[in-house]
């Protein structure tokens, strides 16, 4: 199994695609699908049956506005294989609305079954080889972090938002936590910072922390300072670039 960091940018980064990642195992799961993600996915793999599922962490444009284009190209490519969308409780209507606004009538023309499953807090779901569990972060929209377990490894992804007691419980003993980090040490409402993440990862025995979704100006001008902070941290930290891989 491996993780491919498909996009690592924040919402308004002109240089990097939105924060989104591929879980590549027996099944293939896309974690988030913002407006800049479909071209990145198609460049990596243009097989319309490539994905088994898509996880949407929350209804913000840089995390789910790519769905209309993705589904329309699947329709154009004559996909027949069922597709599952997993999302936080109460998010289904927003997902259906953005798909309909993007391409009116596309849902009725799909030749494959589209299943939308809403996740409830700490109510585990079995999807193929994975046990999937979600917990809320502290963000301006209803955002659920996700944990995927396959009996050998535990992978967590934050979506957006500052961790809290519920997400720390989710992240405990994870092999990899992919977490948004908007700044080095500033407290920005609805987002996490590197220094707090390092402390969180250490106390929850996280084996590797991957920081993504860096604020664009922070990434441009303070990346070297960030790298030094990560090198001296008491936990293993990576700052992935697009298409980097983490192999288990």
State the main characteristics.
single chain, 248 residues, alpha/beta, Metallo-beta-lactamase, Chain A, 7-stranded mixed β-sheet, 8 helices
Account of the protein in words:
28% of the residues lie in helices and 27% in strands. With 248 residues, it is α/β, with parallel strands linked by helices. The protein has a single domain (2-239), classed as Metallo-beta-lactamase, Chain A (4-Layer Sandwich). The strands form two sheets. The chain has a seven-stranded mixed β-sheet. The protein has a seven-stranded mixed β-sheet with strand order 7-8-9-10-11-12-13. Helix 3 (67-76) packs across helix 4 (92-102). The chain is globular.
Distance between the termini: 6 Å
**CATH architecture descriptor:** 4-Layer Sandwich
Strand order of the largest sheet: 6-5-4-3-2-1-14
The name CATH uses for the topology is Metallo-beta-lactamase, Chain A
Number of domains: 1
Portion of residues in beta strands equals 25-35%
Mean pLDDT: 96
Oligomer: single chain
Largest sheet: 7 strands, mixed
Assigned CATH superfamily: Ribonuclease Z/Hydroxyacylglutathione hydrolase-like
- Helix fraction? 25-40%
Radius of gyration: 17 Å
Sequence stretches where pLDDT stays below 50 over 5 or more residues: none
Shape: globular
**H/E series:** EEEHEHHEHHEEEEEHEHEHEE
For the record, the CATH class is Alpha Beta
Total helical elements: 8
Question: What's the topology here?
Answer:
Elements: E1 2-7, E2 20-24, E3 28-31, H1 37-44, E4 53-55, H2 61-64, H3 67-76, E5 83-88, H4 92-102, H5 106-109, E6 114-119, E7 125-127, E8 130-136, E9 144-149, E10 154-157, H6 165-171, E11 176-180, H7 194-203, E12 208-212, H8 216-231, E13 236-238, E14 245-247
Parallel strand pairs: 3-4, 4-5, 5-6, 10-11, 11-12, 12-13
Antiparallel strand pairs: 1-2, 1-14, 2-3, 7-8, 8-9, 9-10
Helix pairs in contact: 3-4
């Amino acid at each position: 199994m491996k993780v491919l960091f498909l996009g690592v940018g924040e919402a308004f980064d002109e240089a990097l695609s939105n924060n989104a990642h591929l879980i590549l195992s027996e099944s293939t799961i896309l974690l988030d699908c913002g407006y800049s993600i479909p071209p990145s996915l198609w460049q990596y793999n243009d097989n319309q049956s490539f994905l088994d599922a898509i996880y949407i962490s929350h209804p913000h444009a840089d995390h789910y506005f790519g769905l209309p284009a993705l589904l329309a190209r699947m329709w154009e490519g004559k996909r027949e294989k069922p597709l599952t969308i997993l999302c936080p409780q109460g998010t289904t209507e927003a997902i259906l609305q953005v798909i309909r606004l993007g391409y009116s009538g596309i849902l009725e023309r799909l030749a494959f079954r589209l299943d939308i499953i809403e996740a409830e807090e700490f109510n585990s779901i079995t999807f193929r080889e994975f046990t999937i569990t979600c917990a809320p972060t502290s963000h301006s929209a209803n955002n659920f972090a996700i944990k995927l377990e396959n009996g050998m490894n535990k992978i967590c992804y934050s979506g957006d938002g500052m961790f809290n007691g519920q997400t720390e419980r989710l992240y405990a003993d994870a092999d990899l936590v992919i977490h948004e980090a908007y700044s080095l040490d500033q407290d920005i409402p609805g987002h996490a910072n590197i220094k707090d993440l390092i402390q969180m990862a250490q106390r929850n025995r996280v084996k590797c922390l991957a920081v993504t979704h860096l604020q664009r100006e922070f990434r441009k001008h303070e990346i070297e300072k960030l790298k030094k902070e990560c090198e001296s941290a008491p936990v293993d930290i990576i700052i992935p670039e697009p298409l980097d891989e983490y192999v288990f």
